[in-house]
Amino acid sequence: MERRKILVTGMSGQIGGILRRSLGERYDFSGIDRRGLDGVDVRVADLADLDAITPVFEGIDTVVHLGADPSPRASWESVLDNNIVATRNVYEAARIAGVERIIFASSNHAVGYYPMKDEPYKSVYDGRLNEVRQPIPPLTADHLRPDSYYGVSKAFGESLGSYYHDAFGISVICVRIGWVMTPDDPSFHPAALSLWLSHRDTASLFERCIEAPPSVGFAIVHGMSNNRLRIWESETTAQIIGFEPEDDSGVDWTERPGGPSFI
Amino acid sequence: MERRKILVTGMSGQIGGILRRSLGERYDFSGIDRRGLDGVDVRVADLADLDAITPVFEGIDTVVHLGADPSPRASWESVLDNNIVATRNVYEAARIAGVERIIFASSNHAVGYYPMKDEPYKSVYDGRLNEVRQPIPPLTADHLRPDSYYGVSKAFGESLGSYYHDAFGISVICVRIGWVMTPDDPSFHPAALSLWLSHRDTASLFERCIEAPPSVGFAIVHGMSNNRLRIWESETTAQIIGFEPEDDSGVDWTERPGGPSFI
Questions:
Q1: Which residues, 6+ apart, have CB-to-CB distance to A155 below 8 Å?
Q2: Which chain B residues are closer than 8 Å to A84 by Cβ?
Q3: Among all residues of chain A, which has the CA nearest to that of B92?
Q4: Which helix H or strand E contains A64, and what residues bound it?
Q5: Alpha-carbon gap: A155 to the closest alpha carbon of chain B (Å)
Q6: pLDDT tens-digit profile of A71-113?
Q7: Which of the residues B162, B165, B174, B176 would you substitute to probe the A interface, choosing the one with the greatest number of A C-beta atoms within 10 Å?
Q8: Environment class of residue B3 by beta-carbon count within 10 Å: exposed (0-12), middle (13-18) or buried (19+)?
Q9: How far, in Å, CA of B62 to CA of B47, rounded?
């Protein structure tokens, strides 16, 4: 059987590397990136240039759109070019080429102000677990509260995906990704324990998105490991794409001075 | 008492005219527009040019952001400049100037695919009222299903408003406006009967948004008259801003050949 042709934007990034290492035998990967990569078919191009990227989509079955300015501190100018214009161009090039499915890397930052401002989420992120009432009402696809221009651009990519699905029939799965980190160890902060998506679960998550049946037309799903401190819904995600994360970050952490801030 | 200073973007448009005629004595209106207007303090500028518009926001209490490419058929290029970049610039200029509140003209097109694709909304738009089950589950602020680049840009303006409120404390009220039309008569099509926002209700709606107390930090509300064929929620809107529309378009219409299409 011929392997499915998967085009990954931002192939040189952390998640691109995990996909190549874990799923490189199963799928026929190619990429678009700002820079070339040894041993991988990568077209060097700027996603903000529609004409430059359109030919790369020919013959592709599924697009995994990871390419973006990944910083929640990114300026408006960078987000506009690298996340907003780029994402529209990826959808448009996929439409022109007749791609079946786009998997869009959305982010927890699309709802990032909930855990920064509202209880019980804030107590989870701050590690005040004795103040957390159980069960935590999970954040769902209907929630939207971006914490940055970056988060706004991820909400934009979701609603653009909804439009492209309804208007053109292309399947779009948006994944609100937690936090993929290297080294693959979230024990340095309670928020990281909540957000963690392990490398193993990252590979499984994208495989599930690629393999989900064509009946999955448009969906917003969550990409976090099975963490005990998780604050996002997981049941709907499991129903829609069959993603069942294996890893659990637990609840024990070590505060490090000058640790991460989340926006 | 000094009149509140209201800056209206897109002042030369239909809604700008209604606001000036109905509320011109109550408020001190100024505007930004692509073209000048007799008898009104209008700065001619392109909203896509942040430096050009920033000085106009000095001393303003409330911004009513109507300026946009208003066509659901607008190209991506036009939407990008006139709706996305322009809206970010309006929020940013308002933030710099310390404006208290932005009223953002969102649109029913942010959820426009529901009545084009899903029952019972579709039957309402198509005028097959015998197929409509009662009561109609109303579309709410949590629904999102844009029908065009234009609709995506309105969803963008809403999520950007949520971010600006959380990050900078500015009050943002997003109004999903139905259909303000001239002449002020929706009897030509069932969808128009559903979407109608009469001129009188338009003035009352924006007055309510301007007068809503500072405790209204961020909200998405609906701007339709009290139409019997209405498919959007109204109770939450009434609770948040006190908008109680007076007009009702009823259910009787005359089909006209080549009537409107909604995207």
A1: A106, A110, A144, A146, B155, B156, B159
A2: 80, 84
A3: A76
A4: strand A62-65
A5: 7
A6: 999 999 999 999 999 999 999 999 999 999 999 999 999 999 9
A7: B162
A8: exposed
A9: 17
* CA–CA distance, A183 with A198 (Å, rounded to integer): 10
Number of helical H runs and strand E runs in chain B = 10, 7
Q: Are the beta carbons of B146 and A152 separated by less than 8 Å?
A: no
Residues of A in Cβ contact (< 8 Å) with B88:
76, 80
CATH architecture of the domain formed by A5-241: 3-Layer(aba) Sandwich (3.40)
Helices (H), B169-198: 190-195
For residue A125, give every residue at least 6 positions away whose Cβ sits within 8 Å of its Cβ, in sequence order, or none. A115, A116, A190, A191, A194, A262
Q: Which residues contact A202 (CB under 8 A, 6 or more apart)?
A: A15, A18, A19, A22, A180, A223
Nearest-CA distance A162 → chain B (Å)? 6
Q: Which of B77, B89, B163, B172 best probes binding to A when mutated, by most A CB atoms within 10 angstroms?
A: B163
Residue ranges of domains in chain B: 5-241
Q: Which residues of B touch A76 (CB under 8 A)?
A: 88, 92
pLDDT tens digits for B89-111? 999 999 999 999 999 999 999 99
DSSP assignment string, B110-166:
GGTHHHHHSTTHHHHHHT-GGG--SS---B-TT-----SHHHHHHHHHHHHHHHHHH
Nearest Cα of chain A lies from the Cα of B138 at a distance, in angstroms, of: 15
SS3 A229: coil
Nearest CA in chain B to A166: B113
Residue A1: exposure state from Cβ atoms within 10 A (0-12, 13-18, ≥19): exposed
pTM for this entry: 0.97
